[in-house]
Amino acid sequence: MWKLRDIFYDAEDVIDDFKCEAVRKQVVNHPNITFKDVIGRDVDKENIIDLLMKPSEGLDVPVIPMIWICVSEEFDLTRLLKLMIHSINKGEQCDDSTVEALQTCLRSLLNDKKFLLVLDDVWNENQARWIELRDLLRSMGGLSQSKIIVTTRSLKVASIMSSIRPYELKVLPHEDCLILFTKWAFNDGDDRQYPNLMRIGEEIVKKCKGVPLVVRTLGSLLFMKTDESDRISVRDNEIWKLEHAENEILPVLKLSYNHLPSHLQRCFAVMSLYKKDSIYYSDKVIQFWMENGLLEHSKQKQEWVDVGGRYLNELLSRCVTKRV
Asked: Topology of 5-161 in CATH?
């Protein structure tokens, strides 16, 4: 659900300005800028490129910080400030700072500039916490011309945080869902070789109710499985009879987990010890698996790190983890 529908074009303009800095730096080393390097409306792209190709004029292009953070369930002011600072300057050290120190650091980074703040996947229903963050941002200056976009699956969250009517994303059309499912469930062209599997797949897609993550998860679950019974078991599974609350994706993810081989189930289960939506390096994850004896000995005499890499790639291919 994208909030602040009325400022959509303003937000796009802010993103355009932010992108200019990266493209302008490219001019120094790469004299040729392609059309796809610039984000924005097509009618403006050529003018932007022409401007950036003239250093004397391009220096006047404003650069506006875009701050994107995944909020999730933990709407803690100190944590959010640290994420915002890290989003602007990844080299900034602020692990042990107080709220006051973090506010000072953020103010110096923004320097009274307008900015675009994206608060992604918000679940906080405590209005006081949102007001605390909003008032803190107001005290730093620049907020009057800045934009804040919030994404959430909760109408209650939207009503708490919005200053205007929220914009609700529509579900993905059935035809697009079917294309997405086919992409993940078959190799290129294989769908034409298995019309019966496609027929069952279409029935599965209808049950996904237009939610892309559900479609992709089930498609990856059935990838390269050419036995009709595999698809029938998914189509007729009991999960479709459950009353789903806000987290309607969870039963489908549980189904995907149940179909993992036992060695992957163990490795995936221990990843629940990590914080949600945090980024971890693959070598650290593999090292953790190794230290806890979760990797099975390979008959091909592979190094343990290679076995762990293979496990991680399998989890990625099944859409239960994501590469960033």
From this structure: Rossmann fold (3.40.50)
